[in-house]
Amino acid sequence: MRAGGFPTVIDDRIAQEFNDHIRVEMASSHLYLSMAAWCESHGLPGFSNWMRRQAEEEHQHALKFFNFLLTRGGRVRLADIPAPDQDWDSPLAVFEAAQIHEAEVSQRINTLVDTVMSVRDHAANAFLQWFVNEQVEEEASVGDVVNRLRLVGSEGRGILLVDQELQQREATRLPA
Ligand code: FEO
Fold this sequence. Notes:
Elements: H1 12-41, H2 45-71, H3 91-118, H4 122-152, H5 156-166
Bound molecules: MU-OXO-diiron.
């Protein structure tokens, strides 16, 4: 299947799944920005910084799907983004929620790989492999914060020390 100006045009079903995944990545960005706001309003600027950086990364992830769809001659169809949660009981609860969220995103990426392989779209598979690896890193990164917060428990000084460490996280430049 070839159309003017494009390499093999992306299958309609794959385009639909990729559009849906743009929504998932944008919703992730929205969720992490909401978590950043919660952390900042609870006197934790380092946790907030970590979440702001994460929100930026998720937006870039959405753009990677956006760009891939356009490069393959697919239509980008943006959809509504649901309102994220806004309240958590503790910094640990925030990061545990993020950890669960990342595990769900990893599952979605794995399902996308299964789908593109079922129609033998090797270009889409190669594209998705970057996300397969990225999810391993993301789950490890948020899991590291969860582990540290579990270690310090509700001890205020320990939480503030972790907060100071997370202040160091800088913006990541992702490959196009
Ligand atoms: Fe882009 Fe954290 O999933």
